[in-house]
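Exercise 7b. Backbone tokens:
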């Protein structure tokens, strides 16, 4: 079998890369981390951070290294999970390259610093990319679209919205995550009721935050649940 594979013209050498769709909220807007490529192919075009997996690296180790080298962001502080694999022929003009995409979320992440083959790194508003139909290098527009929908879906069924918040947060701050990611306003009382009746979603810290004006707000942390039951479903553009 090995000899057949070696001599077959149906098989070609391929490479493995990792790419990262990294989201955060800055100024109540959903942002994604982009780089401007400093090398060919697609010199100067915006792209998701990523690169080749090095010898001896796991996929996750490669993703964390690329994130640090290209943007100066410590991925160990983020919610990080695999999104999927993308390997259509022709997606990379350098040859047959299969990329494993990762989804990452974090609260108010810092201004990134471009490095290695990234000319610069920056946070881009997701709504502007969608409105302008800006094309990213390679198939990164497709990856970004699928990553965004995965985040929106996970907000329905898991407590991943808390990954956008600090370790302690108010329910108003949590609601803002849903409103920004889903792109729609939510009724504060209805949202509060649903969150508090969902077992393990959040738990009170016993502390309060004193605002400049108004009543103190109770602080919460993420609870023990990994799946929301009942989920906060989007129905007709609104959660059920």
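Sequence design result:
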């Amino acid at each position: 079998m090995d000899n057949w594979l070696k001599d077959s013209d149906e098989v070609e050498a391929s490479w493995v890369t990792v790419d990262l769709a990294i989201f955060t909220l800055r100024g109540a807007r959903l942002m994604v981390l982009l780089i401007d490529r400093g090398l060919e192919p697609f010199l100067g075009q915006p792209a998701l951070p990523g690169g080749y997996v090095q010898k001896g690296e796991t996929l996750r180790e490669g993703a964390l290294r690329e994130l640090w080298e290209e943007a100066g962001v410590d991925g160990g502080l983020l919610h990080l999970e695999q999104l999927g694999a993308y390997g259509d022929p022709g997606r990379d003009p350098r040859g047959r390259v299969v990329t494993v995409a990762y989804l990452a979320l974090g609260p108010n992440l810092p201004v990134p610093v471009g490095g290695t083959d990234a000319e610069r790194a920056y946070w881009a508003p997701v709504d502007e990319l969608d409105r302008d139909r800006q094309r990213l290098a390679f198939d990164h527009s497709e990856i970004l679209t699928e990553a965004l929908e995965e985040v929106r879906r996970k907000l329905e069924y898991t407590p991943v919205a808390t990954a956008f918040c600090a370790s302690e947060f108010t329910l108003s701050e949590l609601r803002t995550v849903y409103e920004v990611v889903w792109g729609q306003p939510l009724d504060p009382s209805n949202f509060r009721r649903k969150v508090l009746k969902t077992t393990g979603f959040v738990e009170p810290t016993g502390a309060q935050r004193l605002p400049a004006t108004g009543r103190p707000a109770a602080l919460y942390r993420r609870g023990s649940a990994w799946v929301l039951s009942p989920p906060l479903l989007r129905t007709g553009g609104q959660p059920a």
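Instructor comment: The mean pLDDT is 90. The first helix runs from residue 2 to 7.
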